[in-house]
DNA sequence: ATTGCCTGCCC
DNA sequence: ATTCTGC
DNA sequence: GCAGAATGGGCAGGCAAT
């Protein structure tokens, strides 16, 4: 896109980048660049919707050698024929970043409003067939009656229920009248659709991953007793020697694989942990309670050691719950999910369905800010992400261990050490050492406390480690960079994780 | 053939 | 994934 | 509580440059 804008406006890519750094939005950038240019060259031909559509269509169809250049030309052509305002939204459309405050929720409401049907009916239909094109068509042609007829279709992915993060085990088990605790596995959400001999596998984002997991398909075909059904579960990778869960990174080598699939599944065997059933022999089970669904689940599968129901335990006793939780961690799993036995299956929701996730809180780390990236969108003009480093005790050098982009506030707060994006940017400005495009390097002065879920081995960062899900906690004004945590501590924490310690 | 960057999708 | 914010 | 918009590590694969 940078190149396309440069070409359309007739300036260098560097100059486009310069503007982009300030605006944080290539749409805004191209708008202002085009309007400047237009003051000089007037009278371009008018762009039509048909032309825009044709070019976008053509872009989507190009592939193979030299395709990038052709795509670039097609975008540049549109941009150079567009008015400033048109260019802004063409750029944003291509980048899929409209930034107009409209996403699924508003489209849903708009469909309801346009065809005078209820939001709930639109949402209900969309949950089962997540395609607003289809849903809007039915809403227009058949109204509520049509929407209510939507059924879960085997082979078509639907919106799945999610879990909410809970502050602690005690809060979680006292949230509901009757709860079950289940192991939380660090793997890949897997929806198994079965229709006779036919099996489909989908991820939580509706992707069809059937071809990448022939081993899973085979297990499903063999172990599911029900003729037609949809099962919900989590697939993890196992170490082929020890049989213990492998880090998510290893499982992920299998997820998008198109080649050498057979070889990969020999290397990383899988284990399927089923925790729900959503459809059985023609009936949608989402309106049953979890307790009822779980009984159906037990009847639907013949369990083996690699294809089974997630390990669960019914209790309201905190001591017992804690024991079970520790057991999960010791087994190398991620934590537990506490489930409301009386909750229905609520697609797309984190709260209404009564699933609470509990994971151990890791000791935080004090690291040094050594760089940053200029933010985009609502973070324009501020450092939107911080580059972190850990101290190497022998040399005193600061070795990069990842980036961080969440936890910083937009609004001021009184909390000690808390910082808004603006304040952080102001603090860092005097420390700039060099800039390269959107990247900035800072003198290593500021120490911040960061939280995370896991320390990973990293192939990208020089320290050899990176943080999974890092977030900002506070600035350590009381610490200089030489007092920041060092690599030894990071290594020690890495080794203690996942039941390896204790 | 190898490397390096980008995209899309898993968490 | 996590987090913050406006509604 | 939801919705929307910021942002993370890391993987396979696609393509361009070398």
Keyword list:
17 helices; globular; seven-stranded antiparallel β-sheet; single chain; DNA ligase i, domain 1; D-amino Acid Aminotransferase, Chain A, domain 1; alpha+beta; six-stranded mixed β-sheet; 502 residues; 4 domains; 23% strand; DNA-binding; 20 strands
Care to give the gist of this entry?
The chain has helices at residues 2-9, 13-23, 26-38, 49-61, 67-81, 84-94, 104-114, 119-128, 132-148, 169-173, 214-223, 248-255, 261-267, 290-300, 318-330, 421-428, 487-496; strands at residues 164-165, 179-184, 188-195, 198-202, 228-237, 270-280, 283-284, 307-309, 312-314, 335-340, 355-358, 365-374, 383-391, 398-404, 432-436, 439-442, 447-451, 454-457, 465-468, 471-475. The protein has 502 residues and is an alpha+beta fold.
Which fold does the CATH topology of the largest domain refer to?
Answer: D-amino Acid Aminotransferase, Chain A, domain 1
Calculate Rg over CA atoms: 26 Å
Alpha carbon gap, first and last residue: 51 Å
Report the uncertain regions. Answer: none
| Structural class by secondary-structure content | alpha+beta
CATH class of the largest domain: Alpha Beta
Question: What share of the residues does DSSP label as strand, in percent?
Answer: 15-25%
* Count of helical stretches: 17
The CATH homologous superfamily of the largest domain is named DNA ligase/mRNA capping enzyme
Helix content: 25-40%
Indicate how many domains the architecture comprises.
4
Shape: globular
The number of strands is 20
Mean pLDDT score: 95
CATH level-two architecture of the largest domain: 2-Layer Sandwich
Major pleated sheet: 7 strands, antiparallel
